[in-house]
Amino acid sequence: MNLRKLLKINLINAAILAMIIVFRVVCGMLFNGHDEGADIGNFPTLMTAFLLLLWAGYTVYSNMIVLKENEIEEKEKVKNVKSRLQKAGKPGFFQEERTRLLNVWDGIMSREKYFTSEERDYKIQELYQLTQNQLMRNITNAAEYMESFDYVTGKDSGYLREVCNDSQQLLDKFNKLAELSVTFDDTSLDYDTREMDDMIEYLELMRKTGKAKLGS
């Protein structure tokens, strides 16, 4: 979530509300004791109510736009991961590594709807999101390696094979825990939960230490 943008929008909304309040106070002073009819005397109240209605609608709309924009950006980011890997570097090079990483990515994305459903346990949802984020990071790093590789005189350092192995191992671990979470009975889930906690800690450690980062 873009907290800075959300804060900026709501500061603007607060400023608009303050202006409406000032408008009501000023109008109240101008029309106070007005004796030219009830319609004119009620003008400040009716106008303020109308402005507050517009303000409330705009506040909800502006916040929804910011939140939706972030969601769209995340979806586009996920969508572009596969496309970038397919186009990275020179065609014909690193085909085996590309295929392996694309298969891993398709494997995790094929279950997104299931494992992000509100019906799933929050731990398995968190595990899925962390796994997807780490695989996205691995694939992005792999694409950067292909894009920066010296195709004339360069020698493959084996970095891509390492990324492929790490990614496949990560997917295999997720698959194992996901299978346990949906097939075991309630008494067995206690053990399963501990394994999930361990894997979540491992994924967070990878994110913080930059494991599989280009050049590490």
Protein described:
With 216 residues, this protein is mostly helical. 79% of the residues lie in helices and 0% in strands. The protein has helices at 3-31, 38-41, 43-87, 95-109, 112-115, 122-148, 159-183, 189-209. It is elongated, with a radius of gyration of 27 Å.
Topology:
Blueprint: H1 3-31, H2 38-41, H3 43-87, H4 95-109, H5 112-115, H6 122-148, H7 159-183, H8 189-209
Features:
216 residues; mainly alpha
Strand percentage lies at under 5%
Q: Biggest sheet: strands, sense, closure? A: none
Number of strands: 0
Shape verdict: elongated
Distance between the ends: 29 Å
| Poorly predicted sequence stretches spanning 5 or more consecutive residues | 185-191
Taken in chain order, the helices and strands follow as HHHHHHHH
Mean pLDDT: 78
Rounded Rg? 27 Å
Helix content: over 70%
Number of continuous helical runs: 8
From the helix content, strand content and strand pairing, which structural class follows? Answer: mainly alpha
In short:
This protein is mostly helical. The protein contains 8 helices and no strands. The longest helix is centred in the N-terminal third of the chain and has 45 residues, at 43-87.
